[in-house]
Amino acid sequence: xxxxxxxxxxxxxxxxxxxxxxxxxxxxxxxxxxxxxxxxxxxxxxxxxxxxxxxxxxxxxxxxxxxxxxxxxxxxxxxxxxxxxxxxxxxxxxxxxxxxxxxxxxxxxxxxxxxxxxxxxxxxxxxxxxxxxxxxxxxxxxxxxxxxxxxxxxxxxxxxxxxxxxxxxxxxxxxxxxxxxxxxxxxxxxxxxxxxxxxxxxxxxxxx
Length: 208
Prior knowledge:
chaperone, PDZ_6, 26S proteasome non-ATPase regulatory subunit 9, Pdz3 Domain, 4 helices, PDZ, PSMD9
């Protein structure tokens, strides 16, 4: 049987196929030994001639010789398949290690890219439960990098945010924040609610 995956990576399916082949060979070897057992318990090495040197008449010599020959061939096949199973498992394991290393490298690259986050200009320091801000998913300590059209480049004071909120009542605003070192987008709709203001959160400017 040819080695699995010639020119392509070894898969779990290849290994399963080899194990099935191994099981088939073992079953064939067992059947051959049972056949020998049925011939007066003749094994692999008992003589096939009687005391006078004549072929034994109490057994089917052809069947015995065929079974013995098949056992030798099958045992060689079994040895070869076991070697293939071992090699395939080794390759599979090596590829898993490679994949793990690649995943770690990708995670590191992502972490590095997160370090170049945009500059925040304000921070959320209070969110009232049940408010539009709370419903949108805004959280305390979120650092704001974009609030509608306001960003670090054009932000002067909190009045900039207040103006955007007043002009966006009832309409969703795109808000981008930094949370736990990651960029998070929030859809915030300023509107009347049971509490004070249109947002229900407190925002303070960040001193840079």
